[in-house]
Amino acid sequence: MNTPDEIKKTVKDKYAKIAEGSSNQSCCGTSSCSTDSEVFNIVLDDYKNLDGYLPDADLGLGCGLPTEFAGIEKGDTVIDLGSGAGNDVFVARIETGEEGKVIGIDMTAEMIEKAEKNKAKSGFTNVEFKLGELENIPVEDNTADVVISNCVLNLVPDKKRAFSEMYRIIKPGGHFCVSDIVIHGEITEELRESAALYAGCISGALKEEEYLADIAEAGFTNVEIKKSKQIFLPASMLSKYLSAAGIKDYYENMKGVYSITVTGVK
Question: Domains in the chain, start-ordered, CATH in brackets?
Answer without folding.
Answer: 4-265 (3.40.50.150)
